[in-house]
DNA sequence: GTCGAAGGGG
DNA sequence: CCCCTTCGAC
């Protein structure tokens, strides 16, 4: 089974590129982030024509997640609330950042973790609060079955995951507190699929548009698959496909694919 | 000599299509309207690389005209003021709608005539006032040499030039007053090059984006070449190329070419 | 429908 | 740098 994750930065703008990529890489599951479209306007049909079942949870302008799956998903839900209840979740489901379903007794959890703006900002606090809810949500789901938790985490787990880590310890996506949140996920029993087979740095999944970072390969590895032990041990490959980032009008992220 | 006119609805957005068209149709002169860009930001270089001299008169967001010419232009000017003086022109040169130069003893006058919004509106009055100044401007230039007056006139000269003329006599681009303004130009000695060789209706140069008018061929012929007698008698062909209007992300207008 | 602008976001 | 929205224009 191949499961890919890709922050597409607007599915309507990236539709043709995603279709072309799926034709070349007919993965079993594709998890999308930043679809930026309400469910009614999601361009489902072309992906359904490719043989995918399409599951979406979107909002206007911002955020939004989706799962394309060759097999229909079981036990599908959106947001934290169906698992944790409104009491615990509060308003953390207002932004559409979580979508999940089960395929072959594996629960896929597709997340778009808040960016956090800058360390210490209000949005940073929201990010950290979001991680706490995510932790509780995962704890509940772990009682059921194996989990593939993937998506855009907006965190580079360690210094190998940044083109130049010097002076980045107070930088968003690299602060100790954000990395602790990743460690907490690992403590639950999740392991970084990419790091099973790739031990070197220098492989990235996101390059900032603003500084023309891609042409200088000033990237970050912030898109991940975190797997429970039963899946992790079966991982045969995990790689980043930078080709889509080289196209005309690309997303700032590029797909990451795990195979097990 | 071939002279084309094309309202491109933003030269920056249409750059590649105009380049592709010029490669297929290496006309001697291309007159553009609605370039929608200040002169500093006009993408001159790709057209110069094709062998054209580039003359521009643009403004931010709206209007804007340009001439591409295989031979450099003589006696080049922009607006009415160089010919009529500020006294007569008033503020009619604030909007960039006129550009002119001489090639092979022929004066090219490229115009983007105001749309006029709706009959009786303030913008309609501006359009009619603009026609009056144009008339005076042409009278002056007629003392010099033959003239090719071309561009987007925003007027369908007669009922053959509208897909369905019924009930259009109070419609913008078809009102008696606008058609009188075209008649006044003819009275100065100009003749509609397209009508020398095409007597039937049903050939259009503009189709509204809004109503998907192109797919239903609900068009208007509002882009013209008006020629003085010495040129008109030499006209060997005049045709509308609808291919560019069939492309992806087209302008709402398509090129019209005269040959003499 | 499509354009450019302006403003918010990353 | 690129996306989205809202706006006026045609």
TrEMBL record, chains A, B:
Residues 4-253 form the Endonuclease/exonuclease/phosphatase domain. Mg(2+) binds at residues 7, 34, 152, 154, 252-253. PROSITE patterns: AP_NUCLEASE_F1_4. The record marks 253 as: Interaction with DNA substrate. Probably binds two magnesium or manganese ions per subunit. It holds the Pfam family Exo_endo_phos. The active site is at 112, 152 (proton donor/acceptor), 253 (proton acceptor). One of its GO terms (molecular function) is metal ion binding. The record marks 223 as: Important for catalytic activity. The record marks 154 as: Transition state stabilizer. Keywords: Hydrolase, Magnesium, Manganese, Metal-binding. One of its GO terms (biological process) is DNA repair. Its cofactor is Mg(2+); Mn(2+). Belongs to the DNA repair enzymes AP/ExoA family. This is Exodeoxyribonuclease III. It comes from Dactylococcopsis salina (strain PCC 8305) (Myxobactron salinum).
């Amino acid at each position: 089974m191949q499961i890919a994750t890709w922050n597409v930065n607007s599915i309507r703008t990236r539709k043709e590129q995603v279709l072309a990529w799926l034709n070349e890489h007919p993965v079993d599951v594709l998890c999308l982030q930043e679809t930026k479209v309400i469910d009614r306007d999601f361009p489902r049909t072309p992906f359904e024509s490719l043989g995918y079942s399409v599951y979406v949870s979107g909002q206007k302008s911002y955020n939004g997640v989706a799962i394309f799956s060759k097999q229909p998903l079981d036990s599908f839900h959106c947001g934290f609330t169906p698992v944790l209840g409104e009491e615990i979740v509060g308003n953390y489901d207002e932004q559409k950042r979580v979508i999940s379903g089960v395929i072959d007794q594996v629960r896929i959890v597709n997340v778009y973790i808040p960016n956090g703006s800058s360390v210490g900002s209000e949005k940073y606090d929201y990010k950290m609060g979001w991680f706490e809810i995510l932790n509780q949500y995962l704890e509940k789901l772990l009682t059921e079955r194996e989990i593939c938790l993937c998506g855009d985490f907006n965190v580079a787990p360690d210094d190998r995951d940044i083109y130049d880590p010097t002076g980045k310890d107070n930088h968003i996506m690299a602060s100790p507190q954000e990395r602790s949140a990743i460690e907490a996920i690992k403590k639950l029993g999740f392991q970084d699929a990419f790091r099973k087979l790739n031990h070197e740095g220098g492989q990235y999944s996101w390059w900032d548009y603003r500084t023309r970072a891609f042409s200088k390969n000033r990237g970050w590895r912030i898109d991940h698959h975190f797997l429970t032990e039963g899946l992790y041990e079966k991982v045969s490959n995990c790689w980043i496909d930078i080709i889509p980032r080289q196209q005309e009008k690309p997303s700032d992220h590029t797909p990451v694919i795990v195979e097990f």
